[in-house]
Amino acid sequence: MSMANITFDSLKKDISKRNFAPIYLLMGDEAYFIDQLTELLLEKVLTETEKDFNMLTFYGVDSDVNTIVAAARRFPMMAEYLLIVVKEAQELNKFELLDYYAKNPLKSTVLVINYKHGTVDKRKALVKNIEKNGGVVFESKKLYENQIPSFIKNYFSERNIRIDEKSSQMITDFVGNDISKLIQQLQKLEVSLPEGSNTITSELIEKNVGVSKDYNNFELLKAIAEKNILKANAIVDHFGKNQKDNPGVVTLTVLFSYFSNLLECFWLPQKSEQNVMSALNLRSSFFARDYMSGLRNYNASKVMEIITYLRIFDGKSKGIDNISASPGELLKELVYKIMH
């Protein structure tokens, strides 16, 4: 199956329906999706009883291709499938020789290859033969930070738990796009839900994750967009007193992304909420509100100035042309220049 036609969700759906491919090459820099698909295959291909005689696990560092291929060419015993899992395949010597099996895989074998922290060259014969003969090649890519709120909502939705856009963004701003750290925080929130409740609230996040529901980058951005100087100053003052929990680099990233996108909005022929959502690929009108406020309260010339201020702030935070100003003082100066 061509990589262009598959997604993590489509693969989960097929595996859950027991529509198995003879070979799964799961590769890429994001280990989470590789692990999730592998765990689902372990759950769905064989019953616990069938696993005793029909499942083998190899590790690339201490295995060889010939042994893996020989195992994959066996037939299952009292089961429909034989399941072979190769973990850490990027460490497997002469990995490309798996192509000999990929040319003619057995339909009764499900071979799962975990190739992490990189990808196999898509021009290689192995990749082409896996796809040609009904196999799956899936590249697990790191998520961009703007994809994290949707990931959070989907994670909780699968568990029949609700979370609103603000709360998703609060977690995103606090954790970033490190999926392993993110999952730890989401699991913590899941087990912290009061009995009988299925809604993640900003109060629950503040209590269990540590990010303030009132003093965070989400609220700072909203205050700046609305030109609410009093609120913005209060948040900046809180950040200055709690620098460990509110690193300047995260705030800079949030502001730079916002004003870069806002500048793009000024060139739209029609500056409606729908057009802003379409231009910025926003999935919810909730996230378009700050841009609509920004369009009302700023002009293109001012936004270009602000982007310059952000670059200067970045330099000063790294010690360039800055002798003694603290991160909190630099942020106060930055926000003052943005809003005046």
Walk me through this protein's architecture.
By secondary structure, the protein is an alpha/beta fold. It folds into 3 domains: 3-140, Rossmann fold (3-Layer(aba) Sandwich), CATH 3.40.50.300; 145-208, Orthogonal Bundle (Helicase, Ruva Protein, domain 3); 217-339, Zinc Finger, Delta Prime, domain 3. The protein has helices spanning 8-16, 31-44, 48-54, 65-72, 99-102, 125-132, 148-157, 165-175, 179-192, 202-208, 217-225, 229-241, 248-265, 273-280, 285-297, 300-317, 327-339; strands spanning 23-28, 55-59, 82-87, 109-116, 136-140, 162-163, 199-200. Helix 4 (65-72) links the parallel strand 2 and strand 3 (82-87). The longest helix has 18 residues, at 248-265. The N and C termini lie far apart (55 Å). The mean pLDDT is 91.
Provide key terms for this protein.
340 residues; alpha/beta; Rossmann fold; Helicase, Ruva Protein, domain 3; Zinc Finger, Delta Prime, domain 3; two-stranded parallel sheet; 17 helices; 54% helix
At a glance:
This protein is an alpha/beta fold and 340 residues long. It has helices at residues 8-16, 31-44, 48-54, 65-72, 99-102, 125-132, 148-157, 165-175, 179-192, 202-208, 217-225, 229-241, 248-265, 273-280, 285-297, 300-317, 327-339; strands spanning 23-28, 55-59, 82-87, 109-116, 136-140, 162-163, 199-200.
